[in-house]
């Protein structure tokens, strides 16, 4: 039986509130961002996405919507990049949504990688190799 990892710190919000370079665009409000404007993070720590659980999440999204907004950074006027929430993004595509609720943050590459890593380590199912590769990438930056 797999051992459950203890949670790290107090979550992604701790990093976001401490780091001066990471700011919420405008207020802390949730924006509806069209899916076609969103690009995945090429340095996403999670490498494997189980199609079965993605479909279950898509079914849930069809039934009750996206409960937890994803977190994005603005890359240009019409392009955003995922910091946290790629599974929700992929499931929303499967569910046929045209937009998704999101927080838009300002973050450089290093901040984005830190937030993505923290978000994924706190969740289950990130395997040891994905964690190691993510740490390696963070160290190399």
UniProtKB/TrEMBL annotation:
Stored NCBIfam families: parB_part (TIGR00180)
Residues spanning the signal sequence: none
Domain named ParB-like N-terminal: residues: 29-121
Molecular functions (GO terms): DNA binding
Protein name per Swiss-Prot or TrEMBL: Putative chromosome-partitioning protein ParB
Record GO biological process: chromosome segregation; positive regulation of sporulation resulting in formation of a cellular spore
GO CC terms of this entry: chromosome
Keyword Cell membrane included in the entry's annotation: no
Keywords: DNA-binding
Lineage: unclassified sequences, metagenomes, organismal metagenomes
One Pfam family in the UniProt entry: ParB_N
Stored InterPro entries: Chromosome_partition/occlusion, ParB/RepB/Spo0J, ParB/Sulfiredoxin_sf, ParB_N
